[in-house]
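Q: Start with the shorter request: fold the first protein.
A: Done. Sequence, then structure:
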Amino acid sequence: MATKKASKKTTKKSATKKATKKAATKAVAAKNQLRVRMYRVGFGDFFLITVPTKAGPKHILIDCGVHAGDIGSMEACVKDLAEETKHKLALVVVTHYHADHLSGFASQFNEFTKFDVEMVWISNRLDPDRKDSAKLKAQIAEVANKLQLRLGARKDPDPATALAMAKLENATGRPLGVKGKKKKESSNEKALRLVTKEFANNPPVKYYQGGQKPLLPKSLQGALTAELLAPAPLTSGKEFASSDNKNAQYIMHAADNGLPPTETLEPFEKKWPAVATDYDIWTFKEYRTDADRKAKVPGTETWKLMEKVLRDAQPDTLLAMADAVDGTVNNQSLVILFTCKGKKLLFVGDAQWGNWAYWLYGKKSSGKDLPELQERASEILGSIDFFKVGHHGSSNANPIPAMAALNPACVSMCSTESADAYPEKKRPYGTISKDPNKKGTEVPRILLMEEMEKITGNRLVRSDWIELDDAKAELEVKASPEARGQLKKLPANFSKGELYVDYIFPK
């Protein structure tokens, strides 16, 4: 009797052990699938690709930063990264020199020094062995710092000025008002030092541009391939420096011709040397208002209108140059096409028009009458399975021709933030225009997001749709008011974590 009981107990224990082992094997198999994880950090990029290999899952980190719209989740997200990867990364990619793609490496410096990394890829515009690289970085920093001081001195700051200031801080990783000859290391500089020198095992660092064949870490060889589409080769000079696709655009002109000294940046006095009332009363008769037409002579409303017309016609050079700095850095972005198990993943960093034009057309292109896409570009866009939305959903980083050519079956992720979580719920970047005749400057661009949802059959997911509720990190952040309930039922193969959204590619 006792023997039978013991036998039954042993059999039950053995069955439980087998079931546990089977479940564990199943869990490991699920983890060893191609997956993209997008962390919600605010207005910034932080993506983790899990690559299935014969030796188990390997990981690629693409950028780690937040700038505007910081929701305070970076520390918790990096801890999750460390736990998920066991402090081991096959590849770290730094797309370009902006705080919203770098700041996490600086703010979580100590945690990142514990990571073993096989290899690092960085845009070759940041290669310290290139003399012109250091020169350009120093020039951008100098222009940005001068612009910050001049914009900060304005007595009538408006949303456009605030947006320009945010762009400049993003480009330098240094807040407004840092003075003195011995400046402390900026956040961007600290982040770059981390990824090039301070990982635990001091991995090799490769600096790349479009068209080069990248060297893959050993653990990824045979598991995936990578094609570098941009930035444009250094030999192209400023041919692909444009930040937007417009023919007569002041900003584009400034970016194409380099960044001039700021002493000559404001051609008009802030206060007018003369006012309309200094002129003959009939000088501005063409601008008379209805109220003035009823009167015998033009009145003050006509003069105010004339001044407004002249002011609107005057380019705000400081704001234009802030855009030029921002666009110059964004166009240095690495653009990478990964292919794994037949699935194609396109990561475009913050690439703007010039960067796109290089691999879409192979030549400088602008205006409405654009040439046809190059055959290879058309092939890539028409066959990708995953698209990382450029520059957090801004219209100048997601060109209409490229979006129109997207594979309608692809899925898409956009790491963005439509409103600051703390404290005033303002948009981190730009404003929504209430005037139907004026284009809004908001990022993410609402019309673009809606159009991309249509293009991808509602398979676009934004990071700011996620409601964070992490007791361990004491985080509680609401979803964007623009989410409209999309996350109540995620598209197929998406899943939500406490700090992120995952997309697991179907086998």
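Q: Next, the second protein, separately.
A: Sequence, then structure:
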Amino acid sequence: NLRFAILEWTGVADTVTSDVVKNWASTTYTPNNFFLSSGIVVAGIGSVSLTSGVRTSITLTTTVSSSCNNLIVFFWTDTTQIGTKLMLFDVDCHTGGTRVWSQRPIAQELVLCQRYYEKSYLIDVKPGTVTAVSICQGWVNPNSYGWFKVPQIHNYLVFKRIAIAPIFYSPYTGVAAKVGEYSAGSVYVADRNAGAASIGNNSYGVSWNGSGTEWTGNNYIWHHWTVDAEL
């Protein structure tokens, strides 16, 4: 059997546990039995018997209470499956009793997500990874203060929910809150401190931060970034 449940998380919002199961051997699918005793409310539960190689459609409808801070859709099997593939696809969770399910194109899903979160890294690359692929690039320009600045403005692909400062990462070391200085021959020199300026919900600027050592004029400044505008 494939079992599935809609669970309410009543704990602190956005601090959902990664494992909602207390006892996998239990067949009583309630809190403090199969599920955890704290922070979990079973809003709805269902099961279906699967036949190998046969596609099976399932639906589950429930009412979510006002105590819910996060919603969890959870699937599991009655028994341990060794050497077996369980494929779940076209999964959707939505409100409304009569809404017709219609899968959105992946490009639209990505754009909807990027309103809240975006990064310079490739989609499958973790922030902080040491890589020069898809970096943002500018250069060091002397100014009248005797220090140097980084004249860079970078646009987001999607307008963010709010204007918020990005987090920078050095492409050479992966260290957060740093940018990398590179020579004219693209040879790494050092990580440097830099701050975000002219912050909008569609772009940001990189400003100099003279902290000890002057940067070399006309060198490159490379960096990665992430921006998080979640609710």
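Q: Describe the second briefly.
A: Confidence is low (pLDDT under 50) at residues 144-148. The helical segments are 106-114.
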